[in-house]
């Protein structure tokens, strides 16, 4: 479909959601609130769930072929094992796609999807939502001026559904793997990792030249933590994803004082709180996706970014599992399909 706006009255982008589980329903909710789009329908293998979501957000429950016929763009929020088939179907229909992370089950599938999008002339964006967290974006603006030594990320806490299976490396750690790569604009040269046999806790250390990054993901920690710490020669930057806050610690001065004849220790530092324009990361993500569809520009999180994150977490998971990790490969732009 043509999504070129007119100068006087931009036509709303026609969007849909494929897969309306917990994440997909949130996409439907946000799309229904955006003035620049029309949510024309949702689809899901569970028709009853799709009908409920459609009724909740004032749209229609459609089969996937009917949805693709009406849409300029869709979110694909089906289980990862169905990403390749579903996304390929959308791209071949000439529809722009935002696919939830990870991009696919395998690197080969991801590269084929990227080539399909290129051939069809449509956008393929990967849903690494933390890129759109205002606190992370604030750090991204700062980091070019810092001499970074290390980055540490923690993504801890029990799942909402305590019976939920899944692997923390692919489900949780992938977020911070992508954030570190985006901040350093590179892929890791070396990786070491350890974790539990049940895949509910893992920690990895990655080398990026002179920078060391450590990422930890856990579903056994009984406190929800989402934090990022950047250690630089000039300062220490602390990011709280949940609070959407950034603290910059500078000029730390330890000293001893004499108080009533007693020797006391004091440690002071200058703490800066840069302004963070708070907002819902998902809303920022979908607004960016829609604008990319309109303009034909490159998405903030490209298919290559999603493939690189998948390759890194595959290497981490192999180390945690005690398997031989796949060798690191240079990012490739072309595949035969």
TrEMBL record:
Q: Which InterPro entries match?
A: Gfo/Idh/MocA-like_OxRdtase_N, Gfo/Idh/MocA_Oxidoreductases, GFO_IDH_MocA-like_dom, NAD(P)-bd_dom_sf
Domain (GFO/IDH/MocA-like oxidoreductase) ranges = 161-230
GO molecular function terms here? nucleotide binding
Q: Where is the Gfo/Idh/MocA-like oxidoreductase N-terminal domain?
A: 14-128
> Which Gene3D superfamilies is this protein grouped with?
Dihydrodipicolinate Reductase, domain 2 (3.30.360.10), NAD(P)-binding Rossmann-like Domain (3.40.50.720)
UniProt cross-references to PANTHER family, sorted A to Z: BILIVERDIN REDUCTASE A
Can you say what this protein is called?
Gfo/Idh/MocA family oxidoreductase
Q: Which organism is it from?
A: Natrialba swarupiae
């Amino acid at each position: 479909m043509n999504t070129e706006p007119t100068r006087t009255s931009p036509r709303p982008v026609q969007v849909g959601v494929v897969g309306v589980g917990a994440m997909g329903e949130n996409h439907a909710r946000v799309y229904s609130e955006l003035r620049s789009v029309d949510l024309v329908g949702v689809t899901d293998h569970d028709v009853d769930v799709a009908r409920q979501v459609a009724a909740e957000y004032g749209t229609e429950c459609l089969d996937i072929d009917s949805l693709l016929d009406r849409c300029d763009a869709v979110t694909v929020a089906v289980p990862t094992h169905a990403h390749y088939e579903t996304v390929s179907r959308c791209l071949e229909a000439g529809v722009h796609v935002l696919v939830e992370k990870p991009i696919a089950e395998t690197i080969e599938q991801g590269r084929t999807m990227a080539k399909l999008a290129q051939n069809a002339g449509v956008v393929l964006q990967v849903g690494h939502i933390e890129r759109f967290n205002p606190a992370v974006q604030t750090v991204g603006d700062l980091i070019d001026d810092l001499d970074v030594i290390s980055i540490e990320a923690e993504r801890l806490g029990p799942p909402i559904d305590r019976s939920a299976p899944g692997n923390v490396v692919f489900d949780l750690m992938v977020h911070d793997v992508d954030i570190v790569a985006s901040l350093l604009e590179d892929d890791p040269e070396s990786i070491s990792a350890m974790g539990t046999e049940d895949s509910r806790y893992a920690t990895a250390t990655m080398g990026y030249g002179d920078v060391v990054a450590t990422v930890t993901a856990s579903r056994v920690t009984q406190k929800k933590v989402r934090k990022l710490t950047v250690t630089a020669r000039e300062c220490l930057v602390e990011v709280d994803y949940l609070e959407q806050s950034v603290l910059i610690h500078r000029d730390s001065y330890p000293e001893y004082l004499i108080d009533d004849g007693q020797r006391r220790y004091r440690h002071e530092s200058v703490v800066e709180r840069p302004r963070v324009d708070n907002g819902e990361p998902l809303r920022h993500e979908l607004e960016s996706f829609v604008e990319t569809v309109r303009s034909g520009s490159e998405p903030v999180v490209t298919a290559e970014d999603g493939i690189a994150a998948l390759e890194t977490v595959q290497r981490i998971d192999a180390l945690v599992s005690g398997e031989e990790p796949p060798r690191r490969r240079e990012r490739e732009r072309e595949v035969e399909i």
